[in-house]
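Supplementary Text 2. Reproducibility record for the structural model of the 401-residue chain.

All settings were left at their defaults, and a single model was retained for analysis rather than an ensemble. We include the record here because the model underlies the residue-level annotations in Supplementary Table 4.
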Amino acid sequence: MRLRGLRLGPGAVVAAAFIGPGTVTTATVAGVRYGYSLVWALVFSTLAALVLQEMSARLGVVGRLGLGEAMRRRFPTGFRRWISAGLVVAAILVGNAAYETGNLLGGALGLEELLGGSGRIWGPALGVIGFMLLWSGRYRYVERVLVGLVAIMGVVFLTTALAVAPDLSAVAAGLLPGAFDVEGALVTALGLVGTTVVPYNLFLHASAALERWKGEVDLAAARADTGISVTLGGVISIAVLVTAAALPAAAQVADAGDMALALEPLLGRWAGAFFACGLLAAGLSSAITAPLAAAYATCGIFGWPVDLKAPAARVVWASVLLIGVAFSLLAVRPIPVIIFAQAANGLLLPLIAGLLLLIANDRALLGVWANGRLSNLLGGAAVLVAAVLGLRSLLRALAGL
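Retained model, structure tokens:
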């Protein structure tokens, strides 16, 4: 997609990945429970994501490597290679397969609100759409669809946020941390950051940037794409939180599906259907990017061809998608597998973020485009955030055992 000379693509794919049903639900709950006081957490998470995703895009455009391939080069043999490969399989392949059910069911909620019917029908239907798109093997097709879905989410959630007429002074006050004295607020804030800074997006972005700028090194375009797309993704998440915070205190909202119903008395019948369109786009976008990211990460770490048409890649993304479809048919989520994936992600996130920072300083690979002092300062802060998030994810998983 071109926007006044800018080519939006891989960055929008990443935005499509992190604005899923989980992000929409977490932002909704944060707004309902804590009003505008946690806006700062989404601003912070967007900045952290910008730093890490820029490094990932730079690896793909300048280094001509996906992150999985870069990890394999760093750990070519021995125990560390198998540990890193095992973590990728556990957190990205198994984890995305577990989360795929939530993506499909989240999108199905939007279709239920729009057309009626059951999630057991709409979830698999969305899975079929994702399967057909990925089976085409054409990255450009996938990218265009995802850019379109991000555009839909932007229009829906931003329009809805403006329509509820939020208290702008309260929104501005929420830009500064001040909710640590509220029970559960810090945990919710970490949840908001954790839905934006995720390990599989680092794999996804490097491989997508390599695919998008194949045959050319246009780092300026990649950076512009990253900056615009990730920032837009953060703004969309903030819009969801702001919309939820502006709902009447009497509104009974436990998740994003309830939000569509709660908006109708406030804005009219159109509002619920309009919000449902955004929820549908969020579910479908994540249902496509989760298998895609799993294929890129798994193929890269094992040295298999990183090509959507390659048999190994098709086996990986199809497995993730079909597992999600199977559980959505049963309308249940594989909780033990999700707990396991959370634990693996807790270990993987700081490891991958730290390794990405190390690779971004490799002048033999990136030359003059290796990190400078400011990039390392910001990157170090982002890795620290990743470590905190990883520890939280690990503790959360252990608590669920």
